[in-house]
Amino acid sequence: MAFYQFYSTQKVNASLDEIWDFISSPKNLKEITPDYMGFDIMDTHQPSDKMYEGMIIGYKVSPLLGIKTTWVTEITHIREKEFFIDEQRIGPYAMWHHQHLVEQIENGVLMTDIVSYEPPFGIIGALANKIVIESKIQQIFKYRTIALEKRYGIYKEIKK
Fold first, then answer.
1. Which residues contact 86 (CB under 8 A, 6 or more apart)?
2. pLDDT in tens, 66-80
């Protein structure tokens, strides 16, 4: 079993309310996902545009070589304007657990992501992580950083 964690932080030039409203709506995921991923939310007839505990969200994504795969996640925990957790129920990983944390800081919001995952196929998955998966995850979060900077502006610390 090969288990990995990816950790990312970003300071965003926005209010906690703005960031929470944006990230807690599944329809906004496409905006912060690279186009090459072919990301589409499946029609799940959700009663709400806002996530809630127990919400199941289905996606079609093309993480490698343009091959479409189904990825289904469940929102397992939410603490309003503090964090939410999504966990893979169906998809390319043996295990995927993603913590999205937000915290008000001076002049903006600190977003922290902790992704814990296990690739499939044991030692082959461990090799795939070194060759492809780890760098793909990094690329996705770099893209998200740029997308949020375009949306909210580049965070600037104000020196006193």
1. 57, 73, 74, 75, 76, 98, 100
2. 789 999 999 999 999
